[in-house]
Amino acid sequence: MSLMRVEGLTKEFGGVRAIEDLDFSIPAGGAFSIIGPNGAGKTTLLNLLTGIYVPTRGRVLMEGADLTGCAPHEYAARGIARTFQNLQLFFNMSALENVMVGRHLRERCGLAAALLRFPARARAERAARAEAAEWMSYVGLADHVNAKADAMPYGSLKRLEVARALATRPRLLLLDEPAAGLNPTETREIEALIAKLASAGITVVLVEHNMRLVMGVSEHILVLDYGRRLAEGTAHEVRSDPRVIEAYLGRNSAYAG
Q1: Which end of the chain is more exposed for a tag (fewer CB within 10 A), N or C?
Q2: What is the DSSP letter of 102?
Q3: Are the C-beta atoms of 165 and 75 separated by less than 8 Å?
């Protein structure tokens, strides 16, 4: 069953075509990876799949509903969340407050109630804090619930951004370079978290350069080259494809063949 479908997706910046006539489907459940060399259009594609960019041509459909041209918050309301290659956190807030921000789409309290501190608002805030703490525990950050975001180590901040995305209660979670800058231990923690999310029924879309991680968690892989689809298939099919070996993996790579 397809959760998201992309049809004829094209994005041009001036005279540069960053994404060109892409067609693919993301099945519900499991991990779907998007790989390719630098400049292949991977982050541009994620921006198109989350409403940050509007395609020049083509469509993005979530369970058959056409989201093309919708604002990012409308994508989020449909159950789509993401993290970023470069951390996009609020460093003047606590770790817990960062995760609470992700819950705002689920809040039903107006401005007046928030300003006047009605009892219902106080109860809602306690519930939001409790849920945020649960998401932090889920990603392995229970020891950082009372921490300031700017005092946390980089690897923990990567997982904090995942916790904030999870607070939106997504069905589709897009992770942009979640292992970038991490040491081997932190990378294994991220790999375990991705597997945990997929087993919990959250569809994970992963953009990542760490091929050990990609090949270890992915049920399906899409390979981009200069904004075009170069190959698509299982991990075994992709790493055995001569075009992928030539353009990206390299003939001497441990992941080729």
Answers
A1: N
A2: T
A3: no
DSSP for 4-41, please give it.
EEEEEEEEEETTEEEEEEEEEEEESSSEEEEE-STTSS
Q: What is the largest CA-CA distance in the chain?
A: 65
- CB within 8 Å of 97: residues ≥ 6 apart: 90, 132
- Secondary structure (3-state) at 79: coil
Q: For residue range 32-88, what is the model confidence (pLDDT) as tens digits?
A: 999 998 889 999 999 999 999 999 999 999 999 999 999 999 999 999 999 998 888
Q: Which two tokens stand for residue 130?
A: 């409790």
| Whether 16 contacts 184, CB under 8 Å | no
The conformational region for residue 201 under phi > 0 = left, psi -120 to 50 = alpha, else beta, is left
Phi, psi for 33 (deg, rounded to 5): -105, 145
* Cα 255 from Cα 204, distance rounded (Å): 22
The whole-angstrom separation of Cα 177 and Cα 85 is 5
Q: Which helix (H) or strand (E) holds 176?
A: strand 172-176
pLDDT at residue number 247: 74
pLDDT tens readout for residues 158-174? 999 999 999 999 999 99
